[in-house]
Amino acid sequence: MDGMARTALIIGAGIGGLSTAQALQRHGWSVTVLERSGALPRSGTMLGMWPAALKALDDIGIGETRRHGEGWADITGATATALWTPAGRALLRRPGGVNLKMVSRPTLLATLSEGVDIAFGTPVSDPGQLENADLVVGADGTFSTTRQRIFGDRFRARPLGAVAWRGTIDGTVREYGETWAPGALFGITPAGPEATNWYASVRAPGTFEGPHLSHLKEHFGSWHNAIGEVLTRIDEDGILHHGLFETPRLPSFVNGNTALVGDAAHAMAPFLGRGACETLVDGAALGHAVTRPTGIDDGLANYDHRRRTQTQRLVRASRQVGKLAMLDTGSRARDAAIGAIGTVMMAKAGSH
Ligand SMILES: Cc1cc2nc3c(=O)[nH]c(=O)nc-3n(C[C@H](O)[C@H](O)[C@H](O)COP(=O)(O)OP(=O)(O)OC[C@H]3O[C@@H](n4cnc5c(N)ncnc54)[C@H](O)[C@@H]3O)c2cc1C
Fold first, then answer.
1. What is the pLDDT of residues 316-351, one digit of tens each?
2. CA of 141 to the centre of ligand 1 (A)
């Protein structure tokens, strides 16, 4: 190095862009993040942090001592989880022992943005014009312009033929878990000592018009009591609704001096609750890889090698769990398969 700080331009101030920024800045890089929105979001649900995500936070300088306070929660203790049929029959039940760190999306973004230079209100329409930087990072989400420019229309985000609703209710519930039926699922997970996350998904060709509580009641109103109870506590204004998409399998996460991170590289169905965690791992891995003494090109190849196969496997697994959950070829096939994936399903409790 000639003593000049290396420069990076990052497109997108989501979890991917900001974690990459933190990782690079730790190693002395000069970083600017270009974000089309005017500010970071102020609302969002709680995210469960898997161990790999906590390790990534450690690596980028957001260690245990900073993971406390408003927006952070520790879920511990006897939190039972179950997998039910719509009639309320438990197909699986795990007695408890949850030990999970959670964080609200706005808190995580605020923490990741500390000390980062973000140019808000700056949509990037042609990432190719950013070539003066040593490194360009496409952290621009599921519908990534950067990915589109590198790989073309064939690699547009693919609709999965399903939609999701999600939100948080005040207070806790007696038991957490998921309910599976042909073409639909409903999940209830902890969101802290005084709040509960819920999420619901149905197979549908496109998104629904609001108001949304009526759709939820229509699809899930006749399901068992635990869901009925959640439905009565949902506030229409807090409901998030969106279609489900995934990123097609990319031949590389890297092109020239440009790298893709997060949903731009591997948007996945939400059924394993891994999207945000894997995005954090990308940021830490990319920051680490390009600061190795072997140079940026070698670092980018290393990043691609370390992250692509692993995340593409999760994209596939998330899609398959969704398919299995909402399978409609008779509940016998589904119920038989449940034993095989029960451990995975239970491990994700609380991680949506
Ligand atoms: C509603 C919703 C709820 C979710 N809940 C969970 C959950 O509970 N648990 C979980 O693990 N995962 C969840 N996910 C998935 C998870 O949020 C994502 O995997 C993760 O946020 C990806 O982060 P990202 O930074 O790659 O993309 P994003 O969060 O999409 O950030 C991309 C950023 O880039 C900006 N941008 C886009 N295009 C441009 C452009 N051309 N120029 C400039 N800026 C641009 C956007 O404004 C945005 O700020 C959820 C996703 C959604 C949509």
1. 999 988 888 876 655 566 666 665 555 455 555 444
2. 5
